[in-house]
Amino acid sequence: MRRSKERELEDIFNIPQGHVIIDIPRPELLRAEPRINSTDIQVFDRNQMKSLDEFTPIAQAIRARIAPDWALMLITDEKYRKKVAKKVESCLFS
Q: 37-80 pLDDT, tens per residue?
């Protein structure tokens, strides 16, 4: 359905195919986000339990990630942005 709506918007705005992307965060991501700060993955290393933080900065980067504050994002080339921005809301939600 998302791909179909992308093509529909490209037709409405006379934009070449592949130049509109609709991004909708998965509900699981939004539900899991508040719990990620309390997650600590333990790694067994040379007879000791250590936090994953001690092995890689990726663990902290994942916890620092901020949950999106939007429900839908429409992405297009900068050259089409103004044309799309004027009418996209009525096209998506009518």
A: 666 778 888 888 888 888 788 777 776 666 666 778 889 999 99
41 and 52 Cβ atoms separated by less than 8 Å:
yes
Per 3-state DSSP, what percentage of the chain is helix, strand, and coil (rounded to 5)? 50, 15, 35
Q: Distance between CA atoms of 68 and 79, rounded to whole angstroms?
A: 25
* DSSP 8-state code for residue 51: E
Q: How far apart are CA 37 and CA 33, in angstroms?
A: 8
Residue with tokens 């936090």: 51
- Do the Cβ atoms of 9 and 84 come closer than 8 Å? yes
Would you say 2 and 22 are in contact if contact means Cβ atoms under 8 Å apart? yes
